[in-house]
């Protein structure tokens, strides 16, 4: 999925729960993309390039095959490193789940590498 994201006008903004690194901070008005519907991440917690997570993967005890499977899943997500809508907190959750899916590493081990 690739979208060049066009923001809605002020009047169309939607009130949504505002979350910062998993903590609810009440409702805030969020702009969204009128083309794909993605809601803009308005926190300062910005997405990291997917290469950052590939680098972390290289420090974890996983096989080349596992790395390839995880990389493929990240690629298929398409908007994994879309700075418009994804926060780095959400990326970490996705990354942890994918590593757990393909390896027997614990959440604690994976988090320790982040
Ligand atoms: Zn869009």
Mean pLDDT: 93
- Please, how many domains? 1
What oligomeric state do these chains adopt? single chain
Number of strands: 2
Counting DSSP H or I runs of 4 or more residues, the number of helices is: 4
**Low-confidence residue ranges:** none
The major β-sheet equals: 2 strands, antiparallel
The amount of helix comes to 25-40%
Helix-strand pattern = EEHHHH
By helix and strand content, what is the structural category?
Answer: alpha+beta
Strand content: 5-15%
Distance between the termini: 26 Å
From the alpha carbons, calculate the radius of gyration and give it in angstroms: 16 Å
Bound molecules: zinc ion
Overall outline: elongated
Strand order of the largest sheet: 1-2
Q: Can you describe what's shown?
A:
With 114 residues, this protein is an alpha+beta fold. Helix content is 39%, strand content 13%. The protein has a two-stranded antiparallel ribbon with strand order 1-2. The radius of gyration is 16 Å and the shape is elongated. The structure holds zinc ion. Zinc ion (ZN) binds at residues 3, 5, 33, 35-36, 38.
Helix-strand layout with pairing:
Blueprint: E1 14-20, E2 23-30, H1 50-57, H2 64-77, H3 88-102, H4 107-113
Antiparallel strand pairs: 1-2
Helix pairs in contact: 2-3
The structure holds zinc ion.
